[in-house]
């Protein structure tokens, strides 16, 4: 009897563990795939947002004195011979407050106007230069360029660059828009945390449900086994729980077979007595 009991307990544990492990593997796989998809989607959406805002700013500043060209005279940025630094600076400051996006206007490879501050100060990040990679792609190549892994003043940034052109198509500078990557990473982390909590709750629910089902099945199996054991002792009046007969699975078949066996044995014994 001890050996039989040990086998039953092992079977129950195996059934529960198989169910839990299956759910855990599925949850981990879905969470990993979801994390990759969410991260990719966030990156794509942010880059598209920055592309739209960079092109909008490029169009806005280029339309100022649209018959004139950009030039730098005595450290002052001019467009069509007019000083427009203050106007552009007011524009990008307002846009920054409304959108949370940082804006920068380059003349050549140097930041002339920006909403980004030097680390730990209240001084604007003007007079600093773009990276060699950006200069090669945008200033020299005349192409738009984006990155999800920029470093500006030691801070991680998502950024998008557009070439700033004169009326003859000459690239004279760049327009930049960017978002602090920490905000985006925080949003991704919050989403993944929710997914993780949901996965844990599902695993816990499956574990508890699996244990309850296994215990119920075990009790039914023990009940049937106990009644069958009576047959080995010569007792034909076995009683199997009605719940077992009502099942449409293997346990129901076993219950039906047990009752059939009892009836057959009883019939055989009665006929034997008659003979």
Describe this structure as you would to a colleague.
61% of the residues lie in helices and 18% in strands. It has 275 residues and is an alpha+beta fold. The strands form two sheets. Strands 5-4-8-7-6 form a five-stranded antiparallel sheet, with helices on both faces. A three-stranded antiparallel sheet has the order 1-2-3, with no helix packed on it. A hairpin with a 2-residue loop joins β2 and β3. α1 packs antiparallel against α4 (181-232) and α4 packs parallel to α6. The relative contact order is 0.11.
User: What is the terminal-to-terminal distance?
Assistant: 37 Å
Characterize the main sheet.
5 strands, antiparallel
Q: Any idea what the radius of gyration is?
A: 38 Å
Q: Give, in order, the helices and strands.
A: HEEEHEEHEEEHHH
Query: How much beta, percentage-wise?
Result: 15-25%
What is the strand arrangement across the widest sheet? 5-4-8-7-6
- Helices, by number, come to 6
What is the overall silhouette?
A: rod-shaped
| Average pLDDT over all residues | 81
- Total DSSP E strands: 8
Walk me through the topology.
Layout: H1 2-62, E1 70-73, E2 76-79, E3 82-83, H2 85-99, E4 102-107, E5 110-114, H3 132-140, E6 145-152, E7 155-165, E8 171-180, H4 181-232, H5 242-246, H6 250-274
Antiparallel strand pairs: 1-2, 2-3, 4-5, 4-8, 6-7, 7-8
């Amino acid at each position: 009897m001890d050996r039989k009991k040990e086998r039953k307990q092992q079977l129950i544990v195996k059934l529960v563990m198989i169910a839990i492990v299956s759910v855990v593997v599925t949850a981990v796989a879905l969470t990993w795939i979801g994390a990759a998809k969410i991260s990719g989607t966030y990156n794509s959406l942010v880059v598209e947002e920055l592309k739209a805002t960079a092109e909008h700013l490029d169009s806005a500043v280029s339309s100022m004195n649209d018959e004139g060209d950009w030039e730098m005279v005595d450290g002052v940025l001019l467009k069509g011979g007019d000083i427009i630094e203050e106007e552009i600076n007011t524009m990008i400051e307002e846009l920054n407050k409304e959108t949370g996006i940082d804006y920068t206007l380059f003349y050549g490879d140097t930041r002339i106007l920006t909403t980004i501050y030097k680390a730990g100060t209240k001084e604007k990040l003007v007079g600093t230069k773009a990276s060699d990679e950006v200069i090669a792609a945008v200033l020299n190549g005349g192409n738009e360029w984006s990155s999800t892994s920029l470093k500006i003043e030691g801070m991680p940034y998502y950024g998008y660059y557009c070439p700033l052109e004169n009326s003859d198509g000459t690239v004279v500078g760049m327009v930049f828009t960017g978002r602090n990557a920490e905000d985006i990473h925080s949003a991704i982390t919050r989403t993944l945390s929710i997914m993780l909590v949901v996965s844990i709750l599902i695993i816990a629910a499956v574990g508890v449900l699996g244990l309850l089902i296994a215990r119920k099945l075990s009790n039914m199996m023990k009940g049937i086994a106990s009644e069958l054991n009576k047959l080995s002792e010569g007792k034909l009046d076995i009683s199997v729980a009605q719940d077992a007969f009502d099942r449409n699975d293997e346990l129901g078949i076993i219950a039906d077979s047990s009752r059939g066996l009892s009836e057959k044995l009883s019939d055989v014994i009665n006929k034997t007595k008659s003979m």
